[in-house]
Amino acid sequence: MNAPEPAVKETVIKMYAAREEIHPREVKGRYATLRWACVWLTQALFYGLPWLQMHGRQAVLFDLGARKFHLFGLVLWPQDFIYLAGLLIICAYGLFLVTTVAGRVWCGYACPQTVYTEIFLWIERRIEGNRSARIRLDRQPWTAEKTAKRGAKHLAWGLVALWTGFSFVGYFTPVRQLAHEALGFSLGPWEAFWVLFYGFATYGNAGWMREQVCKYMCPYARFQSAMFDRDTLIVSYDLARGEPRAAARAQGKGDCIDCSLCVQVCPTGIDIRQGLQYECIGCAACIDACDSVMDKVGKPPGLIRYATENALAGRWSAARIKRRLLRPRVIGYGLVFVAIAAAFSGALALRTPLKLDVIRDRGAMGREVEDGMIENVYRLQVMNTAERAHLYRIEVDGIPSAGIADEDLVELAGASTRAVPVRVRVKPGKAAAGSHPIRFTLSALDDPSLRVSERAVFIVPR
């Protein structure tokens, strides 16, 4: 008789580790001060720029409805998309250059996820207390005190998130108009949607997800290694100096006293003593924490510091590290960055704030009018991209006796466009039958430098 087959035991493999709540300890030091300076600077710009006025309108406004971007007196139109592409390329190369030199300093100091997480953590500390108090509060059952603290925290988070969403929409809808509508509870459906959507995203990312955004959602953490090399400055633990660890000073032991403060202050919850990890955002909180401990135990700072792999392996001095920063990869990125930035700046400086498109009336190939003159009809699309109004003169040349049969002056307000119908006439006998190239010229009467030309074709019927 055959023995029964043993039952197959099912094994559940989790593809996503359950999140453990991280309560970073508050830390003080030079890098914490620098990080908060970046928070103040970036948020002063983000919240303040929509309210800045220039030439009677919002200085920074991306008016999608009118298809105009106002940037400190510069007006960009859909035809100017090349400038946006250039700006994005400059930002990308700037990020590559900075990453090659100093690792993820963008993530640690200026990334919106880091900035808003710092703001939300500050609110959390002010309401719920320090790290130990927050951990105890997590473990406590729901009481009136816990409910009040959590409710106050989430209310404060929600207000900051809503103001952030309002400021974001203020870059696309005039912010003063938006504020008037918000106070009158008359926001349009799209404005209300985006205020709530961006506010919810801020609330969720900075309040709830925090380090998960950096670990699982941000692509930068995944491809940063392509820009790193052994001479990139990263937050590093000096293994040779720190090991073996000892809780107390002892002969033959390293400088690390295994206090775990470097882990407690880390916003992503990693142990920097295990080496470079993709979760590390380079915020240097562990450096501030470790330096404070080294000061208390009477040992030199720098057990955890910004260093390179080569510097740690070769025990390099700070001067040698700085000399090695100007290596071929950095020079290459730097030259490309400077070249692109110079080309972009030159193109922007030489840009003429006047555009002209000529569209020929295809309904009539050319006709004979009074006195035997030959007439063609065109539509001139004139675009004044400057912030102030100008009076322009329309001229045509290319065929002898060619002239404008209509009013040859056109006035355009600042940052506006207008379609101008134009009839061009040529005296009989001045041009043979067929097509002839002509050129329209548009020039501002009050500014000779504002002058553009556009080619067209004049048809003489057979």
Commentary on this structure:
The chain folds into 2 domains: 340 residues, no CATH class; 107 residues, Immunoglobulin-like (Sandwich), CATH 2.60.40.10. The mean pLDDT is 91. It is elongated, with a radius of gyration of 33 Å. Strands 8, 9, 10, 12 and 14 form a 5-stranded antiparallel beta sheet that branches. A 4-stranded antiparallel beta sheet has the order 13-11-15-16, with no helix packed on it. Helix content is 42%, strand content 19%. It is α+β, with helices and mostly antiparallel strands and 462 residues long. A hairpin with a 2-residue loop joins β4 and β5. The relative contact order is 0.10. Keywords: 4Fe-4S, Electron transport, Iron, Iron-sulfur, Membrane, Metal-binding, Transmembrane, Transmembrane helix, Transport.
Helix content: 40-55%
By secondary-structure content and strand pairing, the structural class works out as alpha+beta
Q: Which shape, going by the Cα principal axes? A: elongated
The tally of domains stands at: 2
Strand content: 15-25%
Give the C-alpha Rg.
33 Å
Oligomer: single chain
- What's the story with the biggest beta sheet? 5 strands, antiparallel
Tally of DSSP β-strands:
16
Distance between the termini: 108 Å
Task: Note the total helix count.
Answer: 16
Low-confidence runs (pLDDT<50, min 5 residues)?
Answer: none
Overall pLDDT, averaged? 91
